[in-house]
Design brief:
It holds the Pfam family DeoRC. InterPro entries: Carb_Metab_HTH_regulators, DeoR-like_C, DeoR_HTH, NagB/RpiA_transferase-like, Tscrpt_reg_HTH_DeoR_CS, WH-like_DNA-bd_sf, WH_DNA-bd_sf. The chain is of the alpha/beta class. The chain is built from ten helices and 15 strands. The protein has two domains: about 55 residues, Winged helix-like DNA-binding domain superfamily/Winged helix DNA-binding domain (Arc Repressor Mutant, subunit A), CATH 1.10.10; about 180 residues, Rossmann fold. It has a seven-stranded parallel sheet.
């Protein structure tokens, strides 16, 4: 039985998320449709922000303007994110108010929080909300705002205003790209939400996986010096470590 168009597009997304990049001809052959049909499917999926169309291929990998699909990002650097979660979780004391951003790096922290600790979590991440809801000792605040299914988060004026009216002991955020001592992200609405968290927290902690040092993104988000604590997952190449230390940036490798 032939797939419906939506079933076929879901199959395309599944293949791209697993492989990272898939050739157009391979998709046409695997799904039993013409190249033109695949072209039209990719155009639609790209317009929804679910993948990026390249010459003769589709990719889930990020670019200057395109943030990778959330489900794709969830599958990469998983051990590094767990290491960051363990280190960051040790900073959260009982009774703390904590802000967690929409990143898959911070999502690992949400999954690692001790279910027995009385903590208040504020987040714009739908994925973090799903992981945390129902825990008896946890007070959970979801910012609201305009929902972005590709990023699994809430953004825009409602989100930023909600964050601006709250205060937290900690904000845990990540970024798409590190260039020198500056952080960047592809989406300016995501940048504004992260900046709002940073402005509302007493202590700002940055969580970075090694791949962030080899990626470029369009919008300046912050400078490393704006953070009280920077946690970077191993392994980080010696040249990057030396450059950060030479710039006077204090950080911890975990």
């Amino acid at each position: 039985m032939a797939m419906t168009p939506e079933e076929r597009r879901k199959a395309i997304i599944d293949r791209v998320v697993v492989a990272g990049t898939v050739q157009l001809d391979a998709l046409a052959e695997q799904l039993g449709v013409s190249r033109m049909t695949i072209h039209r499917d990719l155009d639609l999926l790209e317009s929804r922000g679910l993948l990026r169309k390249q010459r003769g291929a589709a990719t889930a990998e990020s670019s200057l303007l395109f943030e990778s699909n959330f489900h794709y990002r969830q599958q990469i650097e998983t051990e590094e994110k767990r290491a960051l979660a363990r280190a960051a979780g040790g900073l959260i004391l009982p009774g703390s108010v904590v802000m967690i951003d929409d990143s898959t790096t911070a999502l690992a922290l949400a999954e690692d929080i001790d279910p027995g600790e009385p903590v208040t979590i504020i987040t714009n991440s739908a994925a973090a909300f799903d992981r945390l809801r129902g825990r008896p000792n946890l007070q959970l605040i979801l910012t609201g705002g305009v929902y972005n299914d590709t990023l699994q988060g809430f953004y825009g004026l409602v989100c930023e205003q909600a964050l601006g009216k709250l205060r937290a002991d900690h904000a845990f955020v990540s970024a798409s790209s590190v260039v020198g001592t500056a952080l960047f992200h592809q989406d300016q609405e995501v940048v504004r939400a992260k900046r709002a968290m940073m402005a509302s927290a007493k202590c700002r902690t940055l969580l970075l996986t090694p791949s962030k040092f080899g990626t470029l993104a369009l919008n300046h988000m912050a400078d490393l010096a704006e953070f009280d604590r920077i946690l970077i997952a191993k392994p980080l190449d010696e040249g990057t470590v030396a450059a950060l230390r030479q710039a006077g940036i204090s950080f911890e490798l975990v």
